[in-house]
Each structure stands twice: as C-alpha cells, then as structure tokens.
Fold this sequence. Notes:
Layout: H1 7-31, E1 45-46, E2 51-52, E3 59-60, E4 65-67, E5 72-73, E6 78-81, E7 95-97, E8 102-103, E9 108-111, E10 115-117, E11 122-123, E12 128-130, E13 132-133, E14 149-150, E15 153-155, E16 160-161, E17 166-167, E18 172-173, E19 178-179, E20 184-185, E21 188-189, E22 193-196, E23 201-207, E24 211-213, H2 230-237, H3 241-261
Parallel strand pairs: 1-4, 2-5, 3-6, 4-7, 5-8, 6-9, 7-10, 9-12, 10-15, 11-16, 12-17, 15-18, 16-19, 17-20, 18-21, 19-22
Antiparallel strand pairs: 13-14, 22-23, 23-24
Amino acid sequence: MPKRKNTFSSWRRGLAQRAVHAGWAWVQRTGSVTAEHPGRYRFGAMGTGTRLAFPLGTVFGEPWIHVGAHCIVGEQVTLTAGLMPDLDLGPDPILRIGDGVVLGRGSHVIADTTVTIGSDCYFGPYVYVTSTNHSYDDPHEPIGKQWPRMEPVEIGPGCWIGTGAVILPGARIGRNVVVAAGAVVRGAVPDHAVVAGAPARVVRRWTPADGWQPPLRTPPPVPIPEGVTPEQLRALSGLDEETAARLAELDEEAAAGLAELKPES
C-alpha cells in the first residue's frame, strides 16, 4: 500500500528549505567583496561598482592586483599575483583588470608576471589565463620541480573569451577579439578577429577594406529601439508566432506605403 503523506513533515521540510535558501542568499551578499567592503582583502586598487562574488576562489598577492570599476567577478574565480603568497613583487601592479570586465564562474587568472585585461572584456565560465608555463628541459628532473617559464599576457579591450578557453604565456590578443570556447591561445592575435581550435587559429577577421572575411552567415541582430519600455517588451514576448508575423507584415506594408508617398527628388 502507498505510504501516507506526512503533511506536517512536508511543511517543515519546505520551511527549512526556504530558510536555507534565504540564509545562503544572505551569506552570498555579505561575503561578496567590494571597494567599500573588502573584508580581509587589500587589493592595490578596486573601482566603484565592482563586486567579487562569494564564495571566492584562491586570491593572493592582492596589493599587486588592480581591478577597474563596474567589474563582475563570478563565484570561485582565482586571482593571483606572484608565484606564492607573501612575496614582495615591487612597486608596480602585476595583474591589471580594466573597467567593465566580467569574469565567469570558476575562471583562473594566474599572474606570476604581468597580465593585463582590457576594459569591457567578457569571460565565459572556466577560462584559464596564465603567464607561467612548466619547463621540461631536464629529462631527469620532475617537471614540477623545474623552474617555470614566464611571459607577459595582454588581452585587448572589448574581447569575448568563450567557456573553457586557455590563454597561454606570451599571448597578445588584440581588441574586440572573439576566442571560441575551448580554444588554446598563444602568440599574437590581430584586432577584430575570431580564433578557434587548439592551438587557436584565425577563422574570421574584419578589416576596413574587406569587412568580415569569410562573410558573416547571418544578419546582425537589430537593437531594441530607444524609448521602448520594459512593459512593451513583456507584451511583445507574449505574442504568438502568427500575431508576430502579422505585425511584421503590417510594418512592411506601412514602409512600402511611405515609400510611395515620398516625393521624387
């Protein structure tokens, strides 16, 4: 026979669940790091509106980490400057993050030597950026015990770095570059390019003379017109396909009518 449902027990479980969720939301809000409430962290610089979500990943060398304004750093993101904590790295910052940068959940930025991330860069989750690579010159010494190689990394402004991408030491990525998910980038990448693969290679690029080559396969998205209110957007999202198609036809008919009325020059 089916067991009777314990209404009281179910009610208590639901209440406990809501309490746990509310408590965790409070912990996340309280544990996040901002310029106004840095907690135990003492970053070299942190701009207004920037927030590091709780729980944080590994963070050390904060005095040599400069983070710009209005940045979003997701949960479990690692930010390190130097090979290990408590080193004196000199007067200049090692890790520089520009304004408006978004670092996705679980990403790692390892700056044993200088790493620069330009403004308005967006990282998907689990991106790995490092200025250090292991050496294996000595075949008789364990690789982990050999002194690593270090090269600066620079990521230009306006880039999109896809999920799981790896940016290796010495990478110099131009402005407005798309790095595909899972790509492994080393060396120089020109401005306005799309790179993919391991190792990454340029698969599409824009130049003033030729535009995008190869040409884009889809038209650019139409931005939301200025002045459209959230209520209007919600109303549009509720339209069925037939109504939306009919509205599009009416727009085309109206445009055609206006074109006929326009006087010839």
